[in-house]
Design brief:
The chain has 92 residues and is mainly α. It has a domain at 48-92. It has three helices and no strands.
Length: 92
């Protein structure tokens, strides 16, 4: 890779220089081609059926409820512990 003397003189790091960059013009954006490619990729997607979606949603709901109960229990235990610690600190 040939380093440009102008970039080196200005203190540019070699990683900041474009590797293999040439002055070829960039291809113009083609909206029709883009939409065709999007449609083609959309056809490759495997969509779940209604039953799988329902089961997965139910499992997520159960896990959210269990997690909420766990954090509620931990919060209550810590609140009771702090209550006793503060009561001991106040009992002179």
């Amino acid at each position: 890779m040939a380093k440009s003397p102008n970039l080196i003189a200005r203190g540019a790091r070699p990683s900041a220089m474009a590797v293999g960059a040439d002055d070829t013009p960039k291809k113009p954006f083609n909206l029709v081609q883009f939409l065709r490619e999007v449609r083609a990729e959309g056809r490759k997607v495997t969509w779940t059926n209604w039953r799988e979606t329902w089961i997965t949603s139910a499992m997520v709901a159960v896990m959210v409820i269990l997690t909420a109960l766990f954090f509620f229990a931990v919060d209550e235990v810590l609140a009771v512990a702090m209550h006793y610690v503060l009561r001991l600190a106040n009992a002179e």
